[in-house]
Request: fold
Amino acid sequence: MQKDTLLSNRYHIDILLNAAGFTLVELMIALLVSGFIMASVVSVYIAQSKSYSEQDDIANIQQDLRGALAILPMEIRLAGCDPTESNVAGILEATGSRFRFTMDVRGGATNPNSADGDVNDDSEDVAYGFGANVDTDNDGIVDNGGANWSGTGSLGRQIGGAGGFQDLADNVEAMEFNYVLEDGSTSLAPANPARIRAVQVSLLARAANPASSGFLNTATYTTASGVVWDPPDDNFRRRLVVTTIQCRNMGY
Reply:
């Protein structure tokens, strides 16, 4: 019995001694291969993350522009709206960088959604442009008090002729209002705003963050009036939108 026990123990020891395992060389090779795989995974993740961030910035640009173009046409079409024929509504300011107009579309407390013969009610006096110190030389290009193309600003909306501009679209680098007159000619600063029949709006928006180092933007952008905007060569993506908005209530 004792002999059988000794033989059994020896048998188990032999199995343990002969059991297969990893050598140090095999372990090092496995670690090296794992390192290569992890490096590849991290590299792909970083590339995908950069691509996602850039696409997200582009989407934000387009979303800002879409938001502006949803509001601008709606209100500009009402410039000069004067249902009561009281001769109270019209265009107050028309330059390349600012457009201000009035419309009689609201009334008093008893009938707030009907014209009342004046333009003193809420949102009947509207202006679009850059806020103070964003475009100090009024050429439509953001300078932030310095040289042109010094960052971005916000397309602003002001009501009542005072109170400052409220942000409507962010990350705008330049804007232009070009005016189509009754005879078909165009002007960036018409002497008689009453002759305006349509407004051509050009907006250049820039991504909030630079793209990867491999991207260089050397493009120029032509506005509705034919002015060529030439931002500095950099790695920011940009989008230009140009639209013509008819002033349906002017000239009638």
